[in-house]
Design goal:
The complex is a heterodimer. By secondary structure, chain A is mainly beta. Chain A contains 2 helices and 23 strands. In chain A, strands 1, 2, 4, 5, 6, 7, 9, 10, 18, 19 and 20 form an 11-stranded antiparallel β-sheet that branches. In chain A, strands 11, 12, 14, 15 and 21 form a 5-stranded antiparallel β-sheet that branches. In chain A, a hairpin with a 2-residue loop joins β11 and β12 (166-169). By secondary structure, chain B is mainly beta. Chain B has 1 helix and 31 strands. Chain B has one helix at 2-26; strands at residues 35-44, 63-66, 70-74, 80-85, 89-93, 96-101, 104-108, 114-119, 123-126, 129-134, 139-143, 149-154, 159-164, 168-173, 178-182, 187-191, 198-206, 212-219, 222-230, 233-242, 252-255, 260-265, 268-273, 279-282, 288-293, 300-306, 309-316, 320-327, 332-337, 340-345, 348-356. The longest helix of chain B is centred in the first third of the chain and has 25 residues, at 2-26. The radius of gyration of chain B is 21 Å and the shape is globular. Chain B starts with a helix and ends with a strand. The chains are: A mainly beta, B mainly beta. The A-B interface holds A 38-44, 61-66, 70-78, 82, 84, 86, 92, 94, 96, 105, 108, 127, 129, 131, 133, 136-137, 220-221, 223-226, 236-237 and B 91, 93, 120-122, 124-126, 131, 133-140, 152-163, 174-175, 181, 185-187, 198-200, 202, 204, 219, 247-249, 251, 288.
């Protein structure tokens, strides 16, 4: 029950604020989706800066801006600069990586669509995060930004059954010993501009029964641990393995034949399924 | 050849020293008649090799320096213990220098030898301890003296200020919370200063013993909040509404073991007495400042900078000002030891001593 209250609050905020925001850069500049692995869980999305103006996603008030790679006390700032704006509905928008000299940190108030500064040149990343101040969690920016036409379904670059140090690459049919396994997945969202990392929803079914259903909707902290997935909270550090693959489990396989299905769904609703016939010995 | 090199360095040092002396002569400083700042030595920064025979200097308070051009260590008597040229230097603090080499953050010892190192270039030092940013700026990892990870801690929001003491690390976040983490990585306290229309933390400090934590928080109005350790956690021991509207990092620091809190103000550096009712101002241009005080010393010093203006103020807390010394705009503070000021200026290192006539 306790975990449903923030999830419901988040849903309410998202319903009210849904798509009230606008894209700060062209959606085609997206390079990494929320939940992607960048040495850790990415609690926002990244764009190729392209030296383009970064536009305010909504009317907002400047809360904090700093254009140096480290805070005065030495704490490093990701991507060398940060600007945070308070928006209506208790949402804090945080933009990292704008060119420091271009930042509009002299303007306390900005209107939607006004330039906040210039993005970094070329493919250097600009990062956007939305932080829900009431529920104290990052939310997937795609839930806040207008939908984008997306003709492509996500793709699975690889899947493995993992037991201890042993890894079995999943093929269409595979014979395995009965026991407890983890499922290691390397999924990616496909956009016209290329692979952009974690799809919005990753689910695994065993013999048609849903075993895992992870929507990358939010990231937060609980007692110092990074947590993700509102409906089924998970510790972030348990989500990825050392190779940066998504780690689902444990999954108990008992003797007989089983059908393992991995279903990937992007934010636009495009879905793709991968099925594996397992002979469990 | 060695003798030639020695003479050449001596000559350059003398020229640099003369230039700095001329600088202070041409632009006399409004120090009190009893207090003056006298150049003691100048040393030109040249690349040196790591030299383990100089490790012993680390025990005589070697000063680390880091600039865009060079990094290394100098002894209080002007001996260049180690120097590297280039932009590798990241941070100088206490007796250590942190450099970025080969995708790692490396702590250098005073003799130039490498100490602990951690992956990535996100490491930093605070209160003599080694940390690294984690979680895209929302977390921190702590390491021991050997570079072994001790713990990781994820804060709810992005870190906007950080401080450490002997037994606690404190972060302020963009959503206006203060969170303290103990030596074992467990949460020691969480506190929301509140009281402002917009909540955020702009600066945080921890007293050396970790007993007090100060923060500048919020917008409309902005506040200075001081917490003290007591009982089961930390509680407010002082607070003050400020006239400022800083929307960027705002320094706050403790002086005299936590007896005073110094904080950035639009018109200078504020000083709030925590054991007595004192609320004063040190009128100096200071977008950023650092305070220096040695227990039992008659004076404290404040290094302040705003844009190209850099100065050192000699004072006795709370607000008895002996005088101030302007520094060249390209000078960079290395540190202070007692009454000795160390700066880097134009490829040279300098020591000036504040003395009473």
């Amino acid at each position: 029950m306790a975990r449903r209250i923030p999830a419901a609050g988040l849903l309410l905020i998202l319903c009210v604020a849904a798509w009230a925001f606008q894209w700060p850069l062209e959606p085609s500049a997206v390079r990494r989706e929320f939940g992607g692995y960048l040495g850790g869980y990415l609690p926002g999305m990244t764009f190729a800066g392209g030296g383009s103006p970064v536009l305010a996603p909504e009317d907002g008030e400047l809360v904090f801006a700093y254009g140096k790679p480290r805070l005065p006390d030495g704490f490093p700032l990701p991507l060398g600069s940060v600007a945070a704006y308070a928006h209506a509905g208790g949402m804090l928008g945080v933009v990292s990586g704008m060119q420091p000299a271009s930042m509009a940190d002299y303007k306390p108030l900005v209107k939607a669509g006004e330039p906040l500064g210039m993005g970094p040149e070329g493919e250097r990343p600009l990062r956007l995060e939305f932080f829900d101040l009431q529920n104290r969690r990052y939310v997937n920016p795609r839930m806040m930004l207008p939908p984008v036409a997306d003709p492509l379904a996500p793709s699975l670059r690889g899947a493995w059954l993992v037991s201890g140090a042993a890894e079995l690459p999943l093929e269409r049919s595979l014979a395995v010993r009965q026991g407890s396994y983890f499922l290691a997945l390397d999924p990616t969202e496909l956009m016209p501009q290329g692979q952009t990392g974690m799809p919005f929803r990753v689910a695994a079914l065993l013999d048609g029964v849903l075993r895992f259903d992870w929507r990358h909707d939010a990231a937060w902290s609980s007692a110092g641990r990074g947590m993700i997935v509102s409906a089924d909270p998970r510790a972030e550090r348990e989500l990825y393995d050392a190779a940066g693959r998504l780690r689902l489990g444990p999954l108990s396989l008992s003797r007989g034949r089983s059908l393992l299905t991995v279903r990937l769904t992007d934010f636009a609703g495009n879905a793709r399924e991968y099925s594996y016939a397992l002979v469990v010995q | 050849m060695v003798e030639h090199a020695g003479r050449w360095r001596l000559g350059v040092s003398m020229i640099l020293g003369a230039a700095l002396v001329a600088y202070f002569f041409i632009f006399p400083e409004p120090l009190s008649s009893e207090l003056s700042a006298k150049p003691r030595w100048a040393t030109r920064v040249v690349q040196t090799a790591a030299d383990p025979s100089r490790a012993a200097f680390g025990e005589v308070e070697a000063l680390p320096f880091v600039s865009q051009r060079a990094y290394g260590f100098v002894s209080p008597d002007g001996t260049l213990l180690y120097a590297g040229l280039g932009p590798e230097g990241v941070q100088a603090l206490g007796g250590k220098a942190l450099v970025a080499r080969g995708g790692r953050s490396v702590v250098l010892n005073a003799d130039g030898s490498e100490g602990a190192s951690v992956p990535g270039e996100g490491a930093f030092m605070a209160a003599g301890r080694l940390f690294a940013a984690d979680g895209g700026g929302s977390g921190v990892a702590a390491y021991d003296d050997y570079g072994v990870e001790q713990w990781r801690y994820r804060f709810a929001g992005r870190v906007s200020a950080f401080a450490a003491a002997a037994d606690i690390a404190v972060a302020g976040t963009l959503d206006g919370k203060l969170e303290g983490v103990g030596l074992d990585g467990s949460r020691q306290f969480e506190f929301a200063p509140g009281g402002s229309r917009i909540e955020a933390i702009f600066g945080v400090a921890a007293s050396q013993d970790g007993a007090r934590v100060a923060a500048i928080s919020g917008l409309d109005p902005q506040r200075l909040v001081v917490l003290g350790r007591g009982g089961a956690g930390y509680r407010v021991v002082a607070h003050k509404y400020l006239d400022s509207d800083f929307r960027e990092p705002a320094r706050v620091a403790f002086l005299e073991g936590g007896r005073y809190a110094l904080y950035r103000r639009p018109d200078g550096v504020g000083i709030l007495g925590l054991d007595e009712k004192v609320d004063g101002l040190i009128p100096v241009a200071a977008d950023e400042f650092r305070a220096f005080y040695r227990e039992g010393a008659p004076r404290a010093y404040l290094y302040a900078e705003r844009g190209r203006d850099k100065s050192v103020v000699a004072f006795k807390a709370p607000t008895l000002i002996y005088g101030s010394l302007s520094l060249p705009s390209s000078a960079q503070l290395i540190g202070m030891q007692g009454d000795a000021l160390f700066i880097e200026y134009d490829d040279g290192l300098y020591r000036l001593d504040f003395t009473e006539e």
